[in-house]
Design brief:
The complex is a heterodimer of chains A (396) and B (260). Helix content of chain A is 5%, strand content 54%. By secondary structure, chain A is mostly beta strands. Chain A has a single domain, classed as Porin (Beta Barrel), CATH 2.40.160. In chain A, β13 and β14 form a beta hairpin. With 260 residues, chain B is mainly beta. Helices cover 12% and strands 46% of the residues of chain B. Chain B is built from three helices and 13 strands. The chains are: A mainly beta (396), B mainly beta (260).
C-alpha cells in the first residue's frame, strides 16, 4: 500500500507548515486611460489605449521565523500585445535566524537614494512596458542572505536566473524605431540566462548620514542593441546582454530641511570600455505652506555619464522638480519636473499627481512631454509620444 | 514625590521654607516628576485608530500598530505600521527620537521595497493629514521645553497644576502650550496649543486613563480640536502591552524590510 504511505509522508511534511499559518493579503487593481497628443511616428503604432492590471499580495506567516509572500501581477492592454503580460513579482520564503535572515525564491530589492534615475539599483530587471520611468521591476530569482550587525547590514545575493527586459511591441508607443525583437536576444556568457550572478552590499548609517557600498558580478540588466534582420526581413534591434562587474556607492545625508543625495557607479565589461556614471543633488523642503498644512519640496539633480550620447540619454543632464504634499485627508500629492540635456537641449517634462477617494480608491494623473529632441538623441524615437494618463486604483 | 520634596527642600533651605520655588522651577519640577513616574516601562505596543473629522462632519479612519522602546537618557524609539487606509497598508515609519537634536526617521514603502531616510525638521506639519502635528505625537522629553507654573485649578473634582511649556527645539509651530496636570496621578488632562502669533490654535483632551503594571497611566482616547479650522482628530488606543522584551535590534533600520 504505497499510496497511504505517500499521503502520510506528505501529511508529515506539510503538517508543521500548515498547522496554523497566519494568512493575510493586500493589493490593488487598476484601470488606466492613456491619451496621446500626437500621431505616432510609425503607422503600426496605436493611439489612445485602455489598460487594466491587478497585483494581489498573499502572505503566510508560519511561526516567528518563517513566512511566505506571493505577489502575482497581471496586465491587459488594448493596444500593445507585449504590454499585456504577467509576472511573479514575489514568491519569497523568509527565514529569520539568530542574527541572519535568508530569503529564497523570487523577490525584489531596491538600492539607491536619488529621484530622477536609479543608477545603483541593479538586482531586478526593469519591466519597461509598465512605465518608461523604469521604476517597475520584474521578480528576480534569488537567494538573499542578510546579516544585520552593529557596523551595518551585509547583504549577499546569489542570482541563479536572468530576466530579460520587457519592451513595447510593434503596436506600442514609447518604443525604439526599429522595434526591439526579443526572439533575437543574445548573451555574452555561454550560460545565457542561466548565468549565476552575484551581488553584495554593505549599508549603514552614522548620525544623519546613510550610505551603501555595493558590488555586482554577472549579466548586465541593461542590454546593448544590435541592428539585425528579423525572420520577416525587417530591420530590428536585437538585445545583447554583456557580462559586467559594477561597483557603486550611494549616500544620503539629512541636514535640517535638506536631503543631500549621491549615487555613483563604475562598470567594467569583459569586452568593452568601462565607464563611470553619477547622479547627485538635493531636495529642500519648505514646510507649512498653503494654510500651514502642505510641504513643498524643491529637487535638483545633476546626471553624469562618461560615455557619449550612444551610452544613454543622461550623460550631461539636469533634473529640476517640485514635490507638493498637501497633507490633507485624501493625501493629495504632486510631483513635477523636467530633465534637460545641457549638451543638446533635449527636454523631458513629467507630472505625477495622486489623490485618495474615500478609503479604498486612488485617482492618479500622469503626463509626459518630450521637447526639442534632436534626431541623434536616444529618446528621438519617442519624440511623438507625449501623453496624459488618468488611472483609478482600488486597494484591498 | 520623594525626589521632588528633597529637591524643593534643598532649594528652599537657604531662603527659608516659605519662598520655595520660582514659577519656572516649580514648572520644571512638575515636568520632571511626570517624566520620573513614567520611567521603567521598557517597551510598549498598542493599536491606534485615528478618526479625522472635517468641518462638515465627514470622517475618515486610519489604523496604525505602534511599538516603542524606552531609551534611558535619550528620546524613545518607535515603529508605526499602517493598516488603513488600504493604499498605505504595510507602510512603516521608524523614529529614533532625541530630546533636542533632530530625530532620525526612516519610511518604508512596501510597493517599491524602498527604505527612505526622511527629514524630521518640519515638526509642525500634520501627521497623516490629521490635526495632530508631528511634534504633538513625538516622545515628550523634559529637555524639549522650558516651563512656568501658572497655578492650580479643579476640573471634575480633580486638582490640577497648570503648567506653561515653551518649545526649545527648532521649528515648532507653537509659541507656548498650556497643560493641565492631574496632581494625584501626574498625567496630562488637557493641553492648549498657541500658534506662532500666540493665538489659541488647538485644544487636546485626554480621555479615560487606565493604569498598567500598577504604575503607568495611559489614556484610551485623545481628542484634538482645531479652533481655527473647525476640524478635529480623535486617537483611540487599545491593546496596550508592556515589557514584551523588545530591544534595540527590533528598532533598527534593517528591520523595516520584514515588518508586516
Amino acid at each position: 500500500m504505497i499510496v497511504p504511505k505517500v499521503i502520510s509522508l506528505l501529511a508529515l511534511l506539510v503538517y508543521p507548515i500548515t498547522a496554523f499559518p497566519e494568512f493575510s493579503y493586500r493589493g490593488n487593481a487598476g484601470l488606466e486611460l492613456k491619451y496621446f497628443t500626437a500621431d505616432p511616428i510609425v503607422a503600426d503604432q496605436t493611439g489612445n489605449t485602455i489598460s487594466a492590471s491587478i497585483e494581489p499580495e498573499f502572505y503566510w506567516s508560519f511561526n516567528d521565523a518563517d513566512s511566505l509572500a506571493f505577489t502575482p501581477f497581471l496586465r491587459a492592454d488594448s493596444a500593445d500585445d507585449s504590454r499585456s503580460h504577467g509576472d511573479i513579482r514575489e514568491l519569497l520564503w523568509l527565514h529569520v535566524g539568530e542574527g541572519w535572515e535568508l530569503r529564497s525564491g523570487i523577490g525584489k530589492v531596491f538600492w539607491g537614494v536619488t529621484e530622477s534615475i536609479h543608477l545603483v539599483d541593479i538586482v531586478n530587471q526593469t519591466d519597461l512596458v509598465e512605465n518608461l520611468d523604469q521604476e517597475d521591476k520584474l521578480g528576480q530569482p534569488m537567494f538573499w542572505l542578510s546579516v544585520p550587525k552593529d557596523w551595518g547590514t551585509l547583504d549577499l545575493f546569489a542570482l541563479p536566473y536572468f530576466r530579460e527586459r520587457t519592451f513595447p511591441g510593434i503596436e506600442g508607443r514609447f518604443r525604439t524605431i526599429p522595434v526591439v525583437d526579443k526572439s533575437l536576444t543574445t548573451y555574452e556568457s555561454v550560460d545565457e540566462e542561466s548565468h549565476l550572478d552575484w551581488a553584495m552590499r554593505w549599508s549603514h548609517y552614522v548620525g544623519s548620514l546613510d550610505f551603501g557600498i555595493s558590488a555586482f558580478d554577472g549579466t548586465s540588466r541593461d542590454p546593448q542593441f544590435i541592428p539585425k534582420m528579423s525572420d520577416g526581413g525587417q530591420i530590428v534591434l536585437a538585445p545583447h546582454y554583456p557580462q559586467i562587474r559594477q561597483y557603486s556607492v550611494d549616500i544620503q545625508s539629512v541636514l535640517d530641511a535638506w536631503l543631500l543625495k549621491l549615487e555613483y557607479i563604475h562598470r567594467d565589461f569583459d569586452s568593452a570600455d568601462s565607464y563611470n556614471a553619477a547622479v547627485g543633488g538635493f531636495e529642500y523642503t519648505f514646510g507649512s505652506i498653503f494654510d500651514r498644512r502642505a510641504d513643498l519640496g524643491v529637487i535638483m539633480e545633476y546626471l553624469y555619464d562618461s560615455r557619449d550620447e550612444n551610452g544613454g540619454p543622461f550623460q550631461d543632464d539636469l533634473f529640476a522638480g517640485i514635490r507638493i504634499a498637501f497633507n490633507d485627508i485624501q493625501s493629495t500629492e504632486l510631483l513635477t519636473g523636467i530633465i534637460g540635456d545641457l549638451h543638446n537641449g533635449a527636454r523631458l517634462f513629467t507630472l505625477e499627481a495622486a489623490r485618495r477617494l474615500g478609503d479604498r480608491w486612488t485617482m492618479k494623473l500622469e503626463a509626459r512631454a518630450f521637447s526639442s529632441i534632436p534626431d541623434d538623441d536616444p529618446l528621438s524615437s519617442q519624440r511623438e509620444d507625449d501623453y496624459v494618463q488618468f488611472s483609478l486604483e482600488y486597494f484591498f | 514625590m520623594y525626589k521632588l520634596t528633597l529637591l524643593s527642600l534643598l532649594i528652599a533651605l537657604p531662603f527659608g521654607l516659605v519662598q520655595a520655588q520660582t514659577p519656572e522651577e516649580k514648572g520644571l519640577a512638575i515636568a520632571t516628576e511626570i517624566d520620573a513616574r513614567d520611567q521603567g516601562w521598557q517597551d510598549q505596543t498598542s493599536n491606534m485608530q485615528m478618526i479625522l473629522t472635517n468641518r462638515q462632519g465627514q470622517s475618515s479612519t486610519r489604523k496604525i500598530r505602534l511599538s516603542s522602546l524606552e531609551v534611558p537618557g535619550d528620546g524613545d524609539k518607535s515603529i508605526s505600521i499602517f493598516d488603513e487606509p488600504a493604499d498605505v497598508k504595510g507602510t512603516a515609519f521608524l523614529s529614533h527620537t532625541h530630546a533636542v537634536k533632530p530625530d532620525d526617521q526612516w519610511l518604508y514603502l512596501p510597493a517599491l521595497k524602498r527604505v527612505k531616510r526622511i527629514s524630521s525638521s518640519n515638526k509642525s506639519g500634520p501627521f497623516m493629514g490629521s490635526e495632530f502635528a508631528y511634534e504633538d505625537i513625538a516622545s515628550q522629553e523634559v529637555a524639549k521645553y522650558t516651563y512656568k507654573y501658572l497655578g492650580e485649578e479643579e476640573i471634575d473634582g480633580r486638582k490640577m497644576f497648570i503648567n506653561e511649556l515653551y518649545p526649545q527645539y527648532k521649528k515648532s509651530g507653537y509659541t507656548r502650550q498650556v497643560a493641565w496636570v492631574d496632581q494625584e496621578r501626574y498625567v496630562l488632562l488637557k493641553v492648549e496649543f498657541y500658534d506662532r502669533k500666540n493665538t489659541l490654535l488647538k485644544t487636546l483632551n485626554f480621555v479615560d486613563y487606565n493604569q498598567y503594571l500598577d504604575k503607568y497611566w495611559r489614556p484610551d482616547e485623545m481628542h484634538m480640536v482645531n479652533h481655527q479650522t473647525g476640524k478635529s482628530s480623535k486617537l483611540i488606543w487599545s491593546d496596550y502591552t508592556f515589557q514584551n522584551g523588545l530591544s534595540d535590534s527590533d528598532f533598527e533600520r534593517s528591520i523595516l524590510q520584514r515588518l508586516r
